Amino acid sequence: MLHKWVLMLMTVLSSRKERGCRLNTKIDFREPQPVFIHHGTLLEPTDAAGNIFMAQGDSITISCDHFITHPHTINLRTIATVTCEAGDTFRNDAWLSTPGQFSLFRCSSPPNHMSQRTNRTCYDGNVIYEVGYKVQNNFYPLYESCFNERELYPLYSKYSQKPYNYNFQTRVKRPIFKDDGVYSREFDVPVDWLLSPKEQRRRVSELVGPAVDRYIVPGLQELSRGHLAAKTDFVFAFGERATFHYVNCAPQWTGFNAGNWNTLEVDIRRHIHESNYSTIIYTGTFGVSQLLSDAGDLVYLYLYKDSNNNPVIPVPLYFYKVVYEPKLKKGIAFVGINNPYLTIGEARKLFFCQDLCHGSYNVSWLSWHPDSSREGYTFCCTVEDFRKTVPYLPPFKVTGLLL
Ligand SMILES: *[C@@H]1O[C@H](CO)[C@@H](O)[C@H](O)[C@H]1NC(C)=O
Ligand SMILES: *[C@@H]1O[C@H](CO)[C@@H](O)[C@H](O)[C@H]1NC(C)=O
Ligand SMILES: *[C@@H]1O[C@H](CO)[C@@H](O)[C@H](O)[C@H]1NC(C)=O
After folding, report:
1. 391 cis-preceded (ω within 30 degrees of 0)
2. What is the pLDDT of residues 284-293, one digit of tens each?
3. Which of the ligands is closest to the CA of residue 275?
4. Entry's Pfam families (predicted)?
């Protein structure tokens, strides 16, 4: 009898202790999703399963460009702060008739992400852009891009990947890419139009002649808008949408984009989740792809010439991801070749470091097909070895291979 009472008391005490709120990335969020600010930064899950735990009385700010919608609102607001009541119920007595379910907070339209040119520079005097959201005159960045404003291409995007990123929100609609005038700071370069199917074909045919028909094959191999930071590298819909920015994009062959590059993105995300790594990722481009023209010349692929007749918007030769775990001081570099028209022999000559991934049990979690021309030839190496060829990354201390 006494035992029973003790058990009951313990149950009551523990449920008291658990009083507070729990939201989950997969359950408690609807579209169009607002931007959420928590403790002065963009909302982040608390654990690897995508849960957000909040104490009773803790608050969260909800921001939309137009109106926040919820069945309990008694006036229209574009920004509001709500306080955790319990479970998934939040209150704001001046704005909601009664406390409301968190998942019902939505925007009348998706909030607009934006880029901000900073006064910080990266490799060789290139400029760092931050991409994120402006809320009440504060800018909240999601990632940053080291961008070459002369040749108009991103050297890399830098962002974090943690175990919770595995639990990213799905079914988030793809917005169109925007450039916020970044490609028109000096000359008007219509990046979006240049990447359209018709225009990219015209540009490539100007360089290679009728051979363009062998290279650009609709539905099979074309130049896609290749994300550096992937849409699904962000856990919330507002973050996923913010990847659709041309400072985070470079022309990438569709076979590679949907093939080994996509496999790498998926595998890294799962591996970080399973290994409980907390990483910084640099995803970038290097070099310029070449194709053989009808005249028999190897020509560099650029999609445009600026008003000074300088080529801009290169089709990169390499896409890479350098994954770094600052606490462990370990890192690894994955590289893929963005040219489906090379033989394996030609591709191997472009491998610029000792390949640690090919046929190796070191990276058994990686399921890419490194010898596929269609999916993109791939290799991996130590960060130190990688830096000997690609000098772009800022310094950070690496003492071992992140496996
Ligand atoms: C750079 O920008 C930051 C934030 O916008 C500002 O606080 C700082 O004074 C600027 N630094 C220089 C050297 O302009
Ligand atoms: C994962 O790592 C974090 C620190 O980065 C640590 O607090 C947490 O306990 C770890 N989780 C597991 C399951 O090991
Ligand atoms: C596995 O990684 C180690 C470094 O940790 C390296 O010395 C070794 O060559 C790699 N194995 C293969 C088969 O690449």
Report:
1. no
2. 999 999 999 9
3. 2
4. Endonuclease_NS
